[in-house]
Specification:
- The complex is a heterodimer.
- Chain A folds into four domains: about 90 residues, Uridine Diphospho-n-acetylenolpyruvylglucosamine Reductase, domain 2 (2-Layer Sandwich), CATH 3.30.43; about 120 residues, 2-Layer Sandwich (Uridine Diphospho-n-acetylenolpyruvylglucosamine Reductase, domain 3), CATH 3.30.465; about 110 residues, 2-Layer Sandwich (Alpha-Beta Plaits), CATH 3.30.70.3450; about 90 residues, Alpha-Beta Plaits (2-Layer Sandwich), CATH 3.30.70.
- The relative contact order of chain A is 0.11.
- Chain A is an alpha+beta fold.
- In chain A, about 35% of the residues lie in helices and about 20% in strands.
- In chain B, α7 runs antiparallel to α10.
- In chain B, about 60% of the residues are buried.
- In chain B, a hairpin with a 4-residue loop joins β4 and β5.
- The two termini of chain B are about 25 Å apart.
- Chain B has twelve helices and 18 strands.
- Chain B has a five-stranded antiparallel sheet. A four-stranded antiparallel sheet of chain B has the order 12-13-11-14, sandwiched between helices.
- Chain B folds into three domains: about 210 residues, Uridine Diphospho-n-acetylenolpyruvylglucosamine Reductase, domain 3 (2-Layer Sandwich), CATH 3.30.465; about 80 residues, 2-Layer Sandwich (Alpha-Beta Plaits), CATH 3.30.70.920; about 60 residues, Alpha-Beta Plaits (2-Layer Sandwich), CATH 3.30.70.
- Classes of the chains: A alpha+beta, B alpha+beta.
- Chains A and B meet through β9, α8, β11, α9 and α11 of A and β8, α6, β10, α8 and α12 of B.
């Protein structure tokens, strides 16, 4: 993966940069090699790069001053929440600083009448729900990393979770942000209301992977907790039966709160790890969750049971209490580390496909991985067609890391070819950057990347992520694209 | 002068031609939303000739269709499969009397109906789209799957952009099952303050509520569910709320269609102001209005309609909303008077500057519906 060529002149000013930023954020700059090392990587552990310095601001004013200084001095900035990105979204640059938002760790206010909470971006996803649980409320998006991942990172990646089918990813649950632009301008987009005036810049910023601005405050929608939640464990003799069952549930007009699937390898790994009570003699296991009033839940689970039975379901168990429901989920949410116990290393892939293509794409995934001499366990957000093949490899064996990456890229291209997309919830980051042209035409990408010029004309915020080519804002207004051919085809890819 | 393209390629060529000559275009479908429409321009760009096939895939919860598809046609098509657009696009007919418009107009206007606080806004249901930029480039954005974070979220940005950034030609929407059973509780509440308090209380409990509105001294609470669960939910709600009456099924559906579109709420010459703000600020807004202003609350109070009789003086709702809700609310006059009060207030300067830069990236010549761009960006 090629990153933008580091600017030697900027790197030579390392000490001056650290001193200038230290004047803005006293006690908040780390500039020594050992100190910055822990920030060198995020959840995409294949990549590592130490930044010039790490800056840990406490206030919006400090963020604004740091960005304005970097803007004036041509220093690149990579914002970082908890560093759990699986697509390398927070991978540092050798000639840039990391802006760590961990000190923005307070829940500022909770407004039950308007059903929203104002939180700082370093607050973890789970902490929001925990802080409002006593009032019977929660925050719906629940990525599997929710004990660690931050709200700021969730906003940057438009993070999902296992309840997205019914409750949506971060974006529909985000009402407002305070955003600092690269030049230091502080803006408020949205707020505690339900609609903003003018363009939906909030919608654009959510999921923009740290390329457009730094979020210093988020207003999130909170929901009353469902009166009841119950889950069914459903075992099937084949993935095809399970996939058909998912389609039949949706076709019956049911939108379950969660509809997850794991293949045999993932089921066994999770069961060995968590002892969730999963049947280990099935080829596919589904978790179907219903929530709402007891009457609704009973009704929905009865209908799902009926549909499952018509699709050769061999194991069926309903959670008998909250502890058991959470245990059912514990296995699923620990599927990644569980696979980590049976493989030296694993590479989590994230693509979305039209659900009906599940069987065909799974076949392709197995063939691709086998061709690279590797193994795979599959975990899916089955309700919305979001796949997470976990490609197993051994980084200590020469060539296997590259093989795993190549297999991942081929899997994602297969998702796109099946009518799907490169990423359902993990983001493009560095990981899928060079695959973007497989999904989008040159013009499609141009229309998107021009927006970078409206927010950050010098390309200093998280460059090298998301788009395969640098935006040249100065030239862009005069640029014309002919027949799908970008001008300057000789421009280096980074 | 009028352009009427039949294909996206023709459309792109016409836009390039207009851009080259600095000729502004009034982008419109059937012209059903004149109050928030393109306004004056050098030429009309009539999109009703842009056809295409409709692909409704109920099992995938997806609907892809040409932007020119009539909105009432979309709703009938979905109803045949027991599905709906969950954001309940309001029909513009009651307000402007020029028909129900197109799905392209519904997405370009970005307006959401009563289910907005419970099922998401219009922008949350637009998964993908194709269109032509103000530079005359044909592009697509988003995708045809339910869950997608690949690239910048142009579907959300373009929803509600009123044809000022790009001209939409095709749209992919998330469609959801229509709840098979519904009922509405009608509960007396004399003032906006009492109504807002009652609706906030009702929405703090998970009880299947998908609509909370107030008009004519009466709170309306819609509950949707399966036929088996609905009576239980209704009983639970009744046990927590003051005594009211219940309407069901068709009667309830008709009520909410009227709440969404203001059908039956309007005198023919009313001035109509639409004011989104935090629900808890609705009583403050109500308290600032003169007694002859008629109020309708939707979104549990987070959307306030202010209706003024044609004979009454227009009000500066921008100033009144600002007084009631600070920066957290805004107002737009959808219909009415030749009053000197502008229909929209300028965005605050930083936001206006950023919005203008965004506009310039899509439409550097500034030819797409210039009068409809966010106030303060020109």
């Amino acid at each position: 993966m090629k990153m933008p060529e580091p600017d030697a002149a900027v790197m030579a000013r390392h000490a001056q940069i650290a001193a200038a930023l230290g004047a803005i954020v006293p006690d908040g700059v780390i500039a020594d090699g050992a100190g910055v090392s822990p920030y060198g990587s995020d959840g995409l552990v294949m990549y590592r790069q130490s930044p010039l310095a790490v800056v840990l601001p406490r206030t919006t004013s400090q963020v604004s001053q740091v960005l304005a200084w970097c803007h004036a001095n041509g220093v690149k900035v990579v914002a970082r929440g908890s560093g759990t990105s699986l697509s390398g979204g927070a991978l540092p640059l050798a000639d840039g600083i990391v802006l760590g938002m961990a000190r923005f760790n307070r829940i500022l206010s909770v407004d039950y009448d308007n059903r929203c909470a104002v939180v700082q971006p370093g607050v973890t996803n789970l902490a929001v729900s925990q802080a409002i649980a006593h009032k019977g409320f929660y925050y719906a998006p629940d990525p599997s990393s929710q004990i660690a991942c931050s709200i700021g990172g969730n906003v940057a990646e438009n993070a999902g979770g296992v309840h997205c089918l019914k409750y949506g990813t971060t974006s529909p649950n985000l009402l407002g942000v305070e955003l600092v632009l690269m030049d230091g301008t502080v803006l408020r987009l949205g707020g505690p209301g339900q609609e903003q005036a003018g363009y939906d810049l909030l919608g654009l910023v959510c999921g923009s992977e740290g390329l457009l601005g730094v979020v210093t405050e988020a207003t999130v929608r909170i929901l009353p907790k469902p009166a009841t939640s119950r889950a069914l464990l459903l075992g099937f003799p084949s993935v095809a039966d399970a996939s058909d069952c998912v389609a039949a549930i949706i076709a019956a007009g049911i939108i379950p709160a969660g509809l997850e699937m794991m293949d045999a390898l993932a089921v066994r790994a999770a069961e060995d790890f968590v002892q969730a009570g999963y049947p280990t003699d099935v080829e596919a296991l589904m978790i179907a969750e219903a929530d709402g009033s007891a009457a609704e839940v009973d009704d929905q689970l009865a209908r799902i049971t009926q549909i499952a039975n018509a699709h050769n379901c061999t194991h069926l168990r309903a959670s008998s209490d909250e502890a058991q429901r959470l245990l059912f989920w514990a296995g699923r949410k620990a599927a990644f580390p569980a696979v980590g116990r049976i493989a030296s290393d694993y590479y989590c892939v994230d693509g979305t496909i039209p659900r009906r293509q599940l069987g065909a794409v799974l076949g392709q995934i197995c063939a691709i991985v086998a061709r690279h001499g590797l193994g795979v366990a599959n975990v899916f957000h089955a309700g919305d067609g979001n796949l997470h093949p976990l490609v197993m490899y051994d980084a200590s064996v020469p060539g296997q890391t590259e093989a795993a990456e190549a297999a991942g890229a081929e899997i994602l291209m297969a998702c796109v070819d099946a009518g799907g997309v490169l990423t359902g919830e993990h983001g493009v980051g560095v990981e899928k950057r060079d695959l973007m042209e497989h999904q989008f035409s040159a013009i499609d990408l141009e229309v998107q990347s021009r927006l970078k010029c409206a927010f950050d004309a010098h390309g200093l915020l998280n460059p090298g992520k998301l788009f395969p080519t640098l935006s040249r804002c100065a030239e862009m207004n005069a640029m014309h694209v002919h027949g799908g051919q970008l001008p300057f085809p000789e421009l280096p890819r980074f | 002068m009028a352009y009427r393209p039949a294909t996206a390629e023709e459309l792109a060529a016409m836009i390039r031609d207009a851009a080259a000559h600095g000729r502004s275009l009034a982008v419109s479908g059937t012209g059903s939303r004149p109050g928030i429409g393109p306004g004056a321009a050098d030429a009309d760009l009539d999109l009703t000739g842009l056809g295409g096939s409709i692909d409704h895939d109920p099992g995938e919860l997806l609907l892809t269709l040409p932007a020119s598809t009539p909105l009432d046609h979309v709703e009938k098509l979905l109803a045949q499969s027991g599905q709906c657009l969950a954001f309940e696009p309001p029909s513009p007919d009651a307000i402007w009397g020029r028909g129900h418009g197109t799905i392209g107009g519904a997405v370009a206007s970005g307006l959401s109906g009563p289910r907005r606080p419970f099922a998401g806004a219009c922008r949350d249901h637009v998964l993908g789209l194709s269109g032509v930029t103000g530079r005359g480039e044909i592009f697509m954005a988003g995708g045809k799957v339910l869950k997608n974070v690949t690239g910048f979220d142009l579907p959300r940005l373009l929803t509600g952009s009123r044809g000022t950034l790009a001209v939409l030609t095709q749209i992919t929407l998330k469609v959801l099952p229509l709840a098979p059973a519904q009922a509405t509780l009608l509960i007396p509440a004399e003032t906006a303050a009492m109504a807002t308090r009652m609706m906030a209380g009702a929405c703090q409990i998970d009880g299947g509520i998908t609509g909370a509105a107030w008009s004519d001294g009466q709170v309306q609470l819609r509950i949707e569910s399966s036929p088996a669960a609905l009576p239980v939910l209704v009983d639970a709600a009744r046990s927590r709320l003051p005594t009211g009456t219940l309407i069901e099924d068709q009667e309830s559906r008709a009520l909410w269609a009227a709440i969404a579109s203001l059908h039956g709420h309007l005198e023919s010459d009313d001035i109509i102001w639409r004011c989104p703000l935090p629900a808890s600020r609705a009583p403050a807004l109500a308290a600032l209005l003169p007694p002859d202003a008629r109020l309708r609350l939707d979104w549990a109070g987070a959307l306030v309609w202010v209706l003024l009789s044609a004979g009454a003086a227009d009000l500066d709702l921008h100033a009144i909303v600002a007084q009631a809700a600070g920066r957290d609310g805004h107002a737009e006059r959808l219909r009415g008077s030749a009053s000197p009060i502008p229909a929209r207030a300028p965005l605050e300067p930083g936001l206006a500057a950023l919005s203008a830069r965004v506009k310039a990236q899509f439409d550097p010549a500034g030819i797409l519906s210039p009068a409809a761009a966010p106030a303060g960006t020109a």
